[in-house]
Specification:
This protein is an alpha+beta fold and 393 residues long. Helices cover 22% and strands 27% of the residues.
């Protein structure tokens, strides 16, 4: 897949995607926007390269999936086959793929030169209650009209509201009664050792202990989260760019981080291969939260996405989705039915690649019950080093 920088650059250059987001941002039920790549294009790209073997029957397979009389087969296999493992894999968005435009014509799909998909995400449509009125269904129909009128690949998806992942009884506790997960260890040149978690878990000067009450250290720095004004959509075009970049404010967040100065190095430490400079969609990752050790895949780039906590809304830019890892070579819902998911209370867990040794990829901070969200490790590392100097992982 392309890198996340490739996708952000594509969106910034796409007049059509920006026109669509401006229109959709006027609809109040919108909670965010993501961009991804059509899995059919990915399959055709890999098949053309010979990833499935020189004699793989591409066209008969497409007929089997898209013309099958069994609807359940088409729905569950639409993005099959899926590799059981995928490392860093950069595919060129601009490389011609022979069957891509032809297939769209064969099966009644929208003809688009580009495989990039923009998803307009909206909160759940509210259930009608007596003596109240709701425009939610009309708003949803408006979003569908906007998507269908576009010449690009645009879809509309209803999702549960995402929240900053926070819950009691987790791996670390603060003097303010908050809890979360100890992500990993950073070491300064002078030997000072730091831990990292999320800003919605620990704030500057908070004392931090483990779940047994043993003192770990003191939070020295945290990123201030800015709330989204009531009635404002988390808009990737209309809201001002965060300043500094990457950073938080005046309306948009990119970081949810805290740096804890530890009283002593942890008793056990893992060996990491460094900080990921680049990541690709579909890459296998793992994270160890206070509640779960979960194998996931990196998903869409959430170019702007809303999160809730304690009645407040927060707009985040360019977070990365964590999706359930498919099993048995199957795509779609069938392939992930038994897969684990990130959970409330895992905030601050470090997301690691499947390299040997693993590479630090991100910091988990939010979820919606179906997927998690993480901040890039390269941004987290740069933020920490800007405050205390050179740090190694």
């Amino acid at each position: 897949m392309p890198t996340y920088d490739d996708l952000r650059d594509y969106f910034d250059r796409s007049e059509e995607f920006q026109r669509v987001t401006r229109q959709a941002a006027e609809v109040p039920i919108v909670s965010g926007f993501t961009i991804d790549v059509d899995p059919l294009w990915t399959f055709l790209y890999d098949a053309e390269e010979g990833s499935y073997g020189a004699d793989f029957p591409v066209e008969p397979w497409l007929d089997h999936v898209y013309r099958s009389p069994f609807l359940w087969h088409r729905l569950s296999s639409a993005d099959w086959p899926q590799p059981s493992f995928q490392g860093y894999r950069r595919r060129d968005l601009h490389r011609p793929v022979r069957l891509w435009s032809e297939v769209n014509g064969w099966y009644g799909r929208k003809r688009c030169a580009s495989p990039v998909i923009l998803t307009i995400v909206h909160r759940p449509v509210r259930t009608p209650v007596a003596e109240t009125t709701s425009d939610d269904e009309a708003h949803r129909r408006r979003l569908i009209e906007i998507a269908n009128a576009s010449g690009a690949l645009v879809r509309v998806e209803e999702r549960p509201e995402a929240t900053l992942a926070f819950a009691p009884g987790d791996g670390i506790l603060t003097s303010q009664g908050r809890s979360g997960t100890y992500g990993g260890t950073l070491t300064g040149r002078n030997g000072t050792v730091y831990g990292m978690t999320c800003a919605h878990v620990a704030e500057t000067n908070d004392a931090v202990s483990d779940s047994a009450g043993t003192a770990l250290g003191t939070c020295r720095h945290h990123t201030n989260l800015v709330t989204l004004a009531a009635g404002t959509v988390c808009d990737p075009v209309g809201l001002p760019m965060p300043n500094p970049y990457p950073g938080n404010g005046p309306s948009v967040n990119m970081l949810d981080l805290s740096l804890i100065e530890l009283a002593a190095p942890p008793a056990t430490a893992r060996t990491l291969g460094g900080v990921a400079a680049s990541l690709t969609i579909g890459q296998d990752v793992v994270f160890e939260g206070a509640h779960n050790r979960v194998g996931c895949r990196l998903g869409s780039l959430a170019i702007s996405y809303g999160f809730r906590r304690s009645g407040s809304s927060y707009c985040f830019r360019d977070t990365i989705e964590l999706k359930p890892k498919p099993r048995f070579g199957l795509g779609g819902a069938l392939g992930t039915i038994f897969s684990s998911l990130p959970a409330q209370g895992d905030s601050g867990a470090w997301v690691l690649t499947s390299d040997t040794p693993p590479v630090w990829a991100g910091v988990f901070f939010g979820e919606d019950g179906h997927r998690g969200y993480c901040i890039r490790a390269s941004w987290a590392h740069a933020w920490a080093t800007s405050l205390v100097g050179t740090l190694s992982v």
